[in-house]
Amino acid sequence: MLPTIDTHCHLMNFDYLPDQYTKHLLRNKSELLAKFIEEEELREGTKLNSILKLVDEIGDNNLHKMLNALLPKNFWGINGVIDNLVKKGEFLSSEYIKESGFQPGERNVNIYVPLMMDFIVGSNITKVHNSDGVIPYVLQLQEIAHISRTYPWQIFPFFAFHPRRKNALTLLRLAVEQNGFVGIKMYPAMGFYPDFRGDQGRKNNEIDPIINKNLEGLYSYIAEMRTKKDESIVLPINAHAQYHATQGIDLKPGETLDFTNVMNWDSLIREYDLKINFAHFGGTDFLKRTSIDKDEEKSEDEIAKEFSKNTTDNILALMNRYNSENNKQIFADLSAHSYCLKDGNITTKYFSHINYYLKEGFPLMYGSDLPVIAGETTAKDYINTYEKNIEEEYKENFFSKNALEFLFHENTIPANYLNFMKFSFDYGYMDEDPFSNDVISKHRWVSEYIQKNLYA
Q1: Is 16 helix (H, G, I), strand (E, B) or coil?
Q2: Is the CB of residue 280 less than 8 Å from the CB of residue 242?
Q3: Considering only CA atoms, which of 282, 285, 281 is closest in space to residue 364?
Q4: CA distance linking residue 188 with residue 230, whole number of Å
Q5: 329 vs 323: CA distance, rounded Å
Q6: Taking the domains of the chain in order of start, what are their residue ranges?
Q7: What is the pLDDT, as a whole number, of residue 101?
Q8: Could you count the other beta carbons within 10 Å of the beta carbon of residue 420?
Q9: Secondary structure class of 3 (helix, strand, coil)
Q10: Segment 351-357 long-range contacts (CB within 8 Å, at least 24 positions apart)
Q11: Which residues lie across from 209 on neighbouring strands?
Q12: Distance between CA atoms of 6 and 334, rounded to whole angstroms?
């Protein structure tokens, strides 16, 4: 049986977020929270009870649960948040797992693809200090690698490449070659264009000359790994592609549109043979009701709606341009689409679109965007809404096959991940051999995706 794959999630806690970025993110949930909460109070728990009471007064129980799950003390170990996610499918602390009387849903995720996020550079922090309320980025990388080897064959991480980070290429090599990362997360809404050439390159140079140098190095590295003798690795990219964003700290949503335009990737895809998942598939703003006054400037909702529709159309155009039956390069995940799952009429309209695209063969994939959606719904409710509404004949492609093709070139788990698993066991970082029959039997799909005779 093929695994169900969540192609878009983030394994993070408050240690991964600079204090100023925490307020930036909370503001998207509640202006009141952003005004009265400091991250230090959340992380150390000095005012946690009063803060959570404030959330209760707002009447947002899901937000209450999300904040609780982001506490580092609840994150690690047996029955911690990560353990609960992998084993029980919810980004929740054990307190809430018990409270909800957890019952397995109709469909359970077998593989998570966690995407790192470089909030440090996104916050314009050049060197991390204790007062910033964030651990160094290399330590975040190592912690995600630790999660990966703790749950072999279930966690396949992507390294977040921010081209304004001076040592981005060094850390990328560390992530891929020594820690088994299988892909790259790109977030242009943090203030850069993906192409180092032409007009985009000129604009990048005005922002920071290091951007173009690192981007050129990135695409050269992707090409290098693809042509590596004996251990060729195709590194897929997950690129943010919707109006709403955890954008750079000094940017407003409307100021990110030029950066996020998916057509910025067109010539890069062609020249570097890139494989890209356009995350969020343009978002769901195209379904939102807006009023248009011809005598007034467009509202933010109207701009978001237009951008959403254009982005979805452009992603479909890129799929038509670069995908063939035997070689797909362009994919899209449906993460953070919880808006469309709350209203019956909108839900019906939404799934009529999604089922049509799947019928036409467009490679859409399941994604959640946990823990972002944890502030609005449960992971089980989210995935089971798709389980109930995706037509039966398209479920295998949507939940499994498209993601497997995106992650694993030519149906093969990349050699760097296999090497990382082998190294971790050989040097005592893992108690159980991930290649043993006992482990493989728990993840039956794996045997078909391991390179033949590599570890015979």
Answers
A1: helix
A2: yes
A3: 281
A4: 33
A5: 6
A6: 5-284+313-415
A7: 61
A8: 24
A9: coil
A10: 351/389, 351/390, 354/389, 354/390, 355/389, 355/390, 355/391, 355/394, 357/316
A11: none
A12: 10
pLDDT in tens, 117-151: 999 998 888 888 766 779 999 999 999 999 999 99
- The whole-number pLDDT of residue 456 equals 37
Residue of 411, 386, 381, 416 lying closest to 399 (CA atoms):
386
Angle, to 10 degrees, between the axis of helix 137-150 and the axis of helix 415-426?
80
With a CB cutoff of 8 Å and minimum separation 6, the contacts of 112 are 5, 6, 9, 11, 85, 86, 154, 155, 156
Tell the CATH superfamily of the 5-284+313-415 domain: Metal-dependent hydrolases (3.20.20.140)
Q: Sheet holding 183-186: strands in order across?
A: 158-160, 183-186, 237-240, 276-279, 330-333, 364-365
C-alpha span between 394 and 352 (Å, rounded): 13
Provide the token pair at 57: 């007064």
The DSSP output letter for 429 is S
Burial 366-400 (b: 16+ CB within 10 A, else e): bbbbbbbbbbbebbbebbbbbbebbeeebbebbbb
How far apart (Å, rounded) are the C-alpha atoms in residues 351 and 189?
27
Residue 153's region, left for phi above 0, alpha for psi from -120 to 50, else beta, is left
Tell the burial category of 188 from Cβ atoms under 10 Å away from its Cβ (0-12, 13-18, 19+): buried
| pLDDT value of position 150 | 97
Give the C-alpha separation, 20 to 103, whole Å.
37
Q: Please state the pTM of the whole predicted model.
A: 0.93
User: How far is it, in rounded angstroms, from Cα 265 to Cα 268?
Assistant: 5
* Residue in the block written with tokens 């709403």: 244
281 closest CA partner among 260, 252, 303, 266:
260
What number of other Cβ atoms are within 10 A of residue 320's Cβ? Answer: 11
Residue located via tokens 């036409």 = 360
Say whether the peptide bond before residue 371 is cis (omega within 30 degrees of 0): yes
Q: Name, in order, each residue with C-beta under 8 angstroms of 376's C-beta and a sequence gap of 6 or more.
A: 62, 338
Higher pLDDT, 166 or 101: 166
Judge contact between 71 and 93, C-beta under 8 A. yes
| Cα 277 to Cα 343: distance, rounded to the nearest angstrom | 27
10 and 372 Cβ atoms separated by less than 8 Å: yes
* Range 205-211 average pLDDT: 97
